Fold this protein.
Amino acid sequence: MKKLIALLLSITFFLMGCNNAPQKETQITPAGLYNEPHRPQVHFSPKEKWMNDPNGLVFYAGQYHLFFQYYPDSTVWGPMHWGHATSTDMISWKEQPIALYPDSLGYIFSGSAVVDSANTSGLGKDAVVPLVAIFTHHNAAGEKSGSKTYQNQSLAYSLDSGKTWQKYAGNPVLKNPGITDFRDPKVSWYPAEKKWIMTLATKDCISFYSSPNLKNWVKESEFGETLGAHGGVWECPDLFPMEYEGKTIWVLLVSINPGGPGGGSATQYFTGNFDGKTFTPFQTATRWIDYGSDNYAGVTWSNTGKRKIFLGWMSNWLYANVVPTEKWRSAMTVPRELKLEKVAGNYVLASYPVKEMDKLQEDKRIINDIDGKNYDLSKEVGQITGPVQLHFVAPQLNSFNIVFANSKGEQLIAGYDQAKNEYYIDRSKAGDAKFDARFAARHTGPRLSTSKDLLLTIVLDNASIEMFADNGLTTMTDIFFPSEIFSTVKINSPSDFPIQQLEFSKLKRS
Ligand code: FRU
């Protein structure tokens, strides 16, 4: 029997090999599906078609759920669905059937999901805890007709741990009062008053609503009309408490598009107090969770206890629809653990790849006492053939750059400019950039840390770099499209730049 199967298989493969399909197509066999040029290997990307924002991030019954803005019919943005993927570690994802389809109330725009453990919504049945998704219904016809009320908030629920979803019959649960941009509800439980809080983007500010049951919502307050960055519309907010030395500090994330520090889309944040009604910020200066060009609409998982884990969409509305990938469009960042730190008396948000990422590391090399003035790391570790992680400690920070290059003369540079006290990523010569004139650029992020030494971590995938400097106090994420993978790494500095210890690992495909 085994022999017969083997014979049939080899005949099938022989016949497949004989058809005249273009080489490119025959490479994309199921086993090779994630091998297309520029395909991320350690980041979530959909098997095919268009993806944008992460939605409904929720941990339940041992599984992390990742829903995402998805258009299954094209690689450009269109009528939005919620795609779905699950993972037990946020690293290896399994794509699931589409969770939510557009309906008569509109497309399914961004939103969140919660575990309604006490069944406050009454949507649970027979003691089954409902997972409830709260999202924006976007009525495209309404928008076209000039109505102002085409975005409304609705619910869907799942009684089988997130596998299948039903829309709530009483949708929408929060009707638009006449604000054209009224969307992206992020809902969380406020235990002190046993109520749900909805943080909603309402044009150029955030509105907070509360509800005892996820169905009836009352407006509590507004925040931010005259604070923070306002180069574009406010979108995809998130509000959550974090602990700092026994104190509870509230963090408010607000994505804005355009108006980011590198142009186009970016995510700013505020720290402050929240009393169940009003958010009161500690500082008014604008701060960004990431100073690169490609981390947008990021929010945190709900139901992960004290751990706050963030995931962003690794693209930018400036060019998201035209980046040079054929089968799919865009990926998520690596999941990042958020921490609060205090710098010069201010609370600052640091992000760092979750520790679950460590399991992807293989062939780890630890190299001590490097002269970072002129160091060819490839001589030590060989050519890069896939994603890698690099981490080093330098006792005395000086200007430096790390150059990733390929045999086509393309290069990606990450580094630090001491005179300006800023980090940077320069992708201006990093490959294909003809799809948008603004893509070939150098992005900068201020150094916030005041310590003498430097701890730097870089995650490099086939089409993205994520740099976490000073334990993630300054984080930068950029995508790029080289015509061949970057295979060499060199470190340079105009002055002495001793590196005490450098760790280099290959990252297994996740
Ligand atoms: C952010 C965003 C959201 C909206 C969604 C539509 O990238 O514009 O405000 O809900 O994308 O896909």
In short: The first strand starts at residue 49 and ends at 60. Confidence is low (pLDDT under 50) at residues 1-29. The pocket of beta-D-fructofuranose is lined by residues 52-53, 69, 80, 109-110, 136, 183-184, 235-236, 297 (CB under 6 Å).
